[in-house]
Structure prediction request, 284 residues.
Amino acid sequence: MAVASRYTRRSNRRRFGKASPYLILVLIGIVFLTPLLWMLFASVDVHSTLAVRVPRALTMSNFVAVLSDPGNQRAFLNGLVLSLGQSAVVVVVAGLAAYPLSRYELSYKRPFLYSIIFASSLPITVVMVPVYELFIFLNFNDSIFWTTLFLAASSLPYAIWIMKNFMDSVPVALEEAAWVDGASVWMGLGRVIAPMMMPGIFTLAIFTFSRSWENFFVPFILIQSPQKLPASVSIFQFFGQYGMVDYGKLAAFSMLYTIPSVLLYVLGQKYMSTGFSFGGATKG
Prediction:
């Protein structure tokens, strides 16, 4: 009897040990899904509150109210200009900076790469006070253009590092074969290396866009005019005085706010899932 009881306890412990990772994953999934469910339910609920509940009657009035507001339309447009502009600048400049780091033996290559890693680890809040004073001194404040350039500059350290690693994966023999056929360095970079780095370029562009699209702190500090604020900052309009919050419109605004990142990720899947396939490219 005692032997059977000991066997049962050991079997239960073994089952609990196997099931515990799944239980932990389920709990983590619930923690992540609960805010998304609230956003989904509250956006179509007339009487939405902070509680997660299935609406008794569905309505699209929250989305209509958010989309018909010229201020919200302008905020989304400002956010797209900031994010797309930053992504474009970062991809081009990081590609040009990564090329010599990947292809040539430079005197101060290693210290430069170490400085890039160090710069990537610095929080942007550390430099915002001197950056704000510099913007005031140069009269760059309240400008979407200069804010876009600053965001691009702040993203370059990690972008150069990522782009260099992707470029290292492209065989030099392919570029040398193009040179033998009469291609210049620029033609080799644009017609040989860039097409093969499309997965890396799309990964970097999506990552940069997502970071810029959700950035609240930098536009909040450097842009003062309400008509120039991006959607990441203008979302504060739904938080009124005395703790009053328009939960329905806030949820609808949040749903619309996630669309560009999700759409860009879905479109980029085609290129990101392609992977690198250089096998046999230098043959023939």
Notes: The chain has a mean pLDDT of 83. The chain is about 70% helix and 0% strand.
